[in-house]
Amino acid sequence: MDKLLHDVTLLLPGFMTTVWLTALTLAMALPLAVVIAVGLRSRSRCLTIPLIVVIEVLRGMPALVTLYFVYYGLPAVEIVLNDTLSICVAFGLTFVAYTAPILSAAIATVPRQHIEAGDALGLSRWTVTTRIVLPQAVRASLPPLISWTVILFQGTSLASVVGASDLFARATSLGAQQFAYTYYIVLAAVFYAALSIPFLALAAHVQRRRGGRGLRDAMRSRVRPSKAASA
Predict the structure, then answer these.
(1) pLDDT tens, 116-169?
(2) What is the Cα–Cα distance from 51 to 35, expressed in whole angstroms?
């Protein structure tokens, strides 16, 4: 038991790094996803077509390729980001590519009468969007957003390939030092599961409470199916 507690303590800094990378990526990616979601609802093809092309390209690229492109490719054109920012930008782009269409579909579920009521009150388009449309859209899309956050949290294990001291990197390093790969990988898996399972349960609970028929219908009609990001 003492050894187990000691090993858990050794993995804890890596776990905190993983949580920090996830939180920082969310802080950067969610606002961008909202902006792109609103852009996807535009009537201007000059705006929507480029957004759709970028989203489809990012959705078609494995997350690891995006990470390598940002980490190694951008310095080639004299855009130099530090390690943490490179990781967050790469994962954030993948996260945005999958969540922006979800948010866009959720915007479509907002009752037209609510928007017309805001217009009738003389509210500006900005106020109607930020005070009426987006809050309802975010609530409607909360279950899939939580699920994609869990995927992002687990996907940060890819950051170890560019030298990040995340949970997976700590586990493999300790496994190599003590010739106990399986033991430390299992411990790391317990850390991932300890945070992932409660959030997935929360997503399922919110889904049951709020339902999701309108969002699912909008997603089927507006968003083409795509393969999930892979390493």
Answers:
(1) 898 888 888 889 988 999 999 998 899 999 999 999 999 999 999 998 899 999
(2) 11
